[in-house]
Amino acid sequence: MSLTVKINAEFCAGSGQCVAAAPRGFKLDANDLAIVLEPAGSLPRDALIRIAKACPTLAISLFDGDEEIDPFVGDEYSD
Ligand code: SF4
Predict the structure, then answer these.
(1) Residue range 4-66 in CATH 3.30.365.10
(2) Pocket test for ligand 1, best of 55, 58, 61, 62 (most atoms within 8 A of CB)
(3) Residues 27-55 pLDDT 10s
């Protein structure tokens, strides 16, 4: 099932990591804030989790239906 991806614009620092990692799913707007492009939700779940974890301000939220996913849960033994 595809995930819903949201950016909290209040926290986005415009670093562009999400855009570099998945240009089909993210872009920067005229104010250098990330916005989610429609195909983002169809990116592989593990890729989205990696991108959310790599966001320096944790501005990317992932939802599986109504439930928000914590990208760091279950991560104790991975990088
Ligand atoms: S990685 Fe995070 S801070 Fe950087 S542009 Fe994307 S949402 Fe914004």
Answers:
(1) no
(2) 55
(3) 999 999 999 998 887 899 999 999 999 99
